[in-house]
Amino acid sequence: MSSIDLHGKTWADALPEFIELYNYTLRAHSGGVELDVIHGYGSTGQGGVLRKRIRGYLQRQGERLQFKPGEEVDGNQGHTVVMPVQPLPETADLLAEQILEYCESARTASKITGRFRRYGDPLVLPAIRALERQGRLRADNRGKVKVYQAV
Fold first, then answer.
1. Counting beta carbons within 10 angstroms of the beta carbon of residue 69, is it exposed (0 to 12), middle (13 to 18) or buried (19 or more)?
2. Which residues make Cβ contacts (< 8 Å) with residue 49, sequence separation at least 6?
């Protein structure tokens, strides 16, 4: 079993690192391999942000992989065992995933573009429209303001 330790990393750093190792592991082994993702449990006693986000991402990728929370495997909530099935979208395609994470609470287009300004409006605005067409991001009018929320 391969493993990756994501302790102390931000979500923005952890996800690309996980995807890179996942896809490498899938290419190197033609099935039957497991990947142990060590994310920690968090100091709050309710599960850490990284643990929640990793598992949320894994759930959204259900057709590409299988996974078991560590508490089902050995009682340890600080890791998740992943069984790769198909490649995950490359790191360059993560903007849409990051927008969905950010829009768990309703956000305006200006808030979204401001948050992801490092990508630039020419990439962010089409990503918002594509997510809306896919039905993964819902647009609502709140008064005079249009907000987007992940579905």
1. middle
2. 11, 42
The pTM assigned to this predicted structure is 0.66
- Token pair for residue 114? 């401001």
Structure tokens at 87: 């490649």
3-class DSSP state for residue 7? coil
> Is the alpha carbon torsion for 58, 63, 66, 72 positive or negative?
positive
| Whole-number average pLDDT of the chain | 89
Please give the radius of gyration of the chain, using alpha carbons only, rounded to the nearest integer: 17
The total number of structural domains in the chain stands at: 2
Which of 52, 38, 48, 49 has its CA nearest to residue 7?
Answer: 38
State the CATH number of the domain containing residue 95: 1.10.10.10
Domain boundary among 57, 84, 111: 84
Per residue in 64-122, pLDDT (tens digit) is: 999 999 999 998 889 999 999 999 987 657 788 889 989 999 999 999 999 988 777 88
